[in-house]
């Protein structure tokens, strides 16, 4: 049974922030597709629930050429799927959004909720990592911006403080010729988190950027691996090398309900090969 809590839906960011400041034991509600499950099962208990969907800034999504894309905290995953500009500029983000749960869940689930929930297997984390997204955070003390690579602090943990709200996520603009893909593997039945989620991005300067989810305590940007392939042509031999090398960065749970660690190691390799092939095919067209 759902335990009792106070519910508040402010109409401005200022109201929301001062409510958070006055009521430390507050949880934030966006789409509710993660948090309501936890509250209903009493896995988490809160005294106050703050719905951010009435905040005007949270409902904005805007693209500025040469600057980038701002996705407000109330923007749903389906809004990402439906945006043709995002599909053209940030294809791996659209790809990950398409693959997140079901249409009904995507209608409520938000992009920001996906990263704030900080599941190691969050689908949208990997594409946001390869695009160097910036997390915009507000509190009564002021605003701050955190690089997405520094946002995740562990399983279901972020660097957010109790009095902070994420107002949105900003993705820098890409140059013409920039391309990316998202591949994931999940259990066959039903809508579920991935066993491995992989985002690969190839910049016009031929820099290969990589991020992977569900293989460690947090989604990972593979910066060291990126450096070691810098300047190298993508060939089947290089793909084989990355398949072996990527294992050094993975630290999957030995056994989870979704899969064994061995399976995740194997699938990561399969997705790397498929992803690189897809990127090259896209480049050729
Ligand atoms: C059946 C089912 C299938 C699913 N499948 C997938 C899947 O395939 N892939 C996947 O990645 N996820 C999946 N999920 C998880 C979930 O749908 C996503 O993580 C979703 O994006 C969460 O967004 P939300 O708006 O519903 O978040 P909420 O549940 O509202 O919030 C999630 C967490 O983030 C915090 N939060 C939300 N917004 C903010 C904010 N602005 N500032 C600070 N904290 C905030 C909340 O307090 C809470 O702790 C699934 C869930 C269900 C129920």
Integer tally of domains: 3
- How is the CATH topology of the largest domain named? Uridine Diphospho-n-acetylenolpyruvylglucosamine Reductase, domain 3
The bound ligands are: flavin-adenine dinucleotide
Oligomer designation:
single chain
Sheet/helix structural class: alpha+beta
Largest sheet: 5 strands, antiparallel
Number of helices: 11
The rounded distance between the terminal residues' Cα atoms is 54 Å
* Low-confidence runs of at least 5 consecutive residues: none
Give the amount of beta strand, in percent: 15-25%
The proportion of residues forming helix, as a percent range, comes to 25-40%
Overall morphology: globular
Tell me the strand order in the biggest sheet.
Answer: 4-5-10-6-7
Order of helices and strands: EHEHEEEHHHHHHEEEEEEEEEHHH
Output the CATH class name of the largest domain.
Alpha Beta
* pLDDT averaged residue by residue: 95
The radius of gyration is 19 Å
CATH architecture level-2 label of the largest domain: 2-Layer Sandwich
Query: How many strand units?
Result: 14
In summary, what is this structure?
The chain has 285 residues and is α+β, with helices and mostly antiparallel strands. It folds into 3 domains: 6-51, Uridine Diphospho-n-acetylenolpyruvylglucosamine Reductase, domain 2 (2-Layer Sandwich), CATH 3.30.43; 57-172, Uridine Diphospho-n-acetylenolpyruvylglucosamine Reductase, domain 3 (2-Layer Sandwich), CATH 3.30.465.10; 179-284, CO dehydrogenase flavoprotein, C-terminal domain (Enolase-like, domain 1), CATH 3.30.390.50.
């Amino acid at each position: 049974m759902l335990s009792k809590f106070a519910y508040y839906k402010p109409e401005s960011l200022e109201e929301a922030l001062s409510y958070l400041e006055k009521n430390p034991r507050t949880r934030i509600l966006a789409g509710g597709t993660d948090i309501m499950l936890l509250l209903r099962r009493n896995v988490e208990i809160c005294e106050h629930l703050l719905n951010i969907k009435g905040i005007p800034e949270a409902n904005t999504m805007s693209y500025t050429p040469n600057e980038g894309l701002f996705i407000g905290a109330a923007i749903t995953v389906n809004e990402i799927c439906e945006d043709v500009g995002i599909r053209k500029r940030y294809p791996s983000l659209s790809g990950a959004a398409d693959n997140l749960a079901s249409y009904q869940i995507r209608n409520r689930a938000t992009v920001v909720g996906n990263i704030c929930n900080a599941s190691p297997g969050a689908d949208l984390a990997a594409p946001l990592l390869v695009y160097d997204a910036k997390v915009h955070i507000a509190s009564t003390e002021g605003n701050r911006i955190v690089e997405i690579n520094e946002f995740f602090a562990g399983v279901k943990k972020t660097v957010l403080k109790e009095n902070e709200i994420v107002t949105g996520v900003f993705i820098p603009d890409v140059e013409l010729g920039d391309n990316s893909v998202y591949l994931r593997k999940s259990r066959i039945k039903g809508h579920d988190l991935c066993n491995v989620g992989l985002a690969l991005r190839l910049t016009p300067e031929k820099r290969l950027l990589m991020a992977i989810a569900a293989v460690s305590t947090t989604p990972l940007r593979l910066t060291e691996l990126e450096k070691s392939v810098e300047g190298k042509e993508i060939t089947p031999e290089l793909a084989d090398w990355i398949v072996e090398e990527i294992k050094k960065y993975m630290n999957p749970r030995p056994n989870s309900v979704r899969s064994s660690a061995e399976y995740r190691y194997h699938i990561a390799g399969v997705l790397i090969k498929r992803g690189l092939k897809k990127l090259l095919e896209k480049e050729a067209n």
